Amino acid sequence: MADHSEKHVTEDDKATPAKMRKLESGDAAEARDNFAGFKLIKVLNENTRNKCIFVHGSFEGSDDDAVVLMEKTPFDKQSISAMLTSTTDLKQVMQNDIYGVYTSSPPPDLNGINTTIIYPATDRHIMKYSAQQIYLINETAEEYQEITLPFIESQPFSLQWVYNILDKKAESDRIIFEDEDTDTGFILLPDMKWDEKLTENLYIIGICHKRGIRSLRDLGREHLPLLNNIAKKGKEAICTKYGVKENQLRVYLHYQPSYYHLHVHFTHVNFDAPGMNIGKAHLLLDVMENIEMQSDYYPKKTFTFTAKEKDPLYLKYKAAGKM
Ligand code: G7M
């Protein structure tokens, strides 16, 4: 199996020299205090049900693109009494008999919005977060070899953020658990989508130390000790730190993943997490059972997965006359 540990710089990453410099450094970008000088270019997508919005913009004095992901967070039962005090301003919208409707403005510290800034963002980030028609692709083992694998090898999303975590260059203060074994070890930490405030929307990822396992497609019997280890120790560590029991955790892998370095998703069973749908999520226990029954189950399987209309992989399948 090819080793993918070296850093890939995609064509999109190469868009400007500034982007190259920042992406090659491997350092985390500087923290920002506010959105001063931010110019909104376009709302890429919004979802009223999930109360999130994704926008494309830029920061003053920079030619680089930025993608900002904002999501209103669930209510915290612990802080609701602090919210129902004189510190929360009420503006009346209407009153009818005993029914009063208001817009309330709680103090900022009780009213945070989970915000991710991707900067500098590549064209692929802008595409990834744009509203698009979705299609299903059936990928046979042969099509994986002929279309998907060459695509992954030619332009994966940069794995720099993954290597920063594994090398303790970023997010090391957020590590929940680590097993350092080079074959079966992994790092467990909050997914960037989770603000760690409430366990109701708990979202944690386990990233394996071993490099070169791109996805589910690469898994066989030799990986069972790694998968068992992530399943067992990951769940134990989450239970110890957050009190969420094993039978309240959904543990799965994505196919296709966005990032081709093996990682496992842990989410709270009550949470309707993005990317949990059929055509994307594969339960880790099912994966292990399938491999136990047949070691080359995943290399041989026909996968059905969802892809967006501007996704370069979808375009490859279309160009090959498969769509
Ligand atoms: O779809 P895929 O299985 O590749 O999911 C990758 C996961 O990694 C997503 O749930 C992302 O939210 C998460 N993620 C992506 N980035 C860039 C980061 C990051 O820099 N830090 C953390 N903690 N999670 C990330």
Please describe the structure with a list of short key phrases separated by commas or semicolons.
9 helices; globular; hydrolase; EC 3.6.1.59; m7GpppX diphosphatase; DcpS/DCS2; nucleus; 28% strand; binds N7-methyl-guanosine-5'-monophosphate; HIT family, subunit A; disordered N terminus; 323 residues
Kindly describe this structure.
The chain is of the alpha+beta class. Among the domains are: 74-111, no CATH class; 132-319, 2-Layer Sandwich (HIT family, subunit A). The protein contains 9 helices and 14 strands. It has helices spanning 17-25, 80-83, 123-128, 141-154, 160-166, 224-242, 284-293, 297-300, 312-319, and strands spanning 38-47, 52-59, 65-72, 89-96, 99-105, 113-121, 134-139, 177-179, 186-190, 203-208, 249-254, 263-268, 281-283, 303-308. The strands form 4 sheets. Strands 8-9-10-12-11-13 form a 6-stranded antiparallel sheet. Strands 1-2-3-6 form a 4-stranded antiparallel sheet. A hairpin with a 4-residue loop joins β1 and β2. α6 (224-242) runs antiparallel to α7. The radius of gyration is 22 Å and the shape is globular. The structure holds N7-methyl-guanosine-5'-monophosphate.
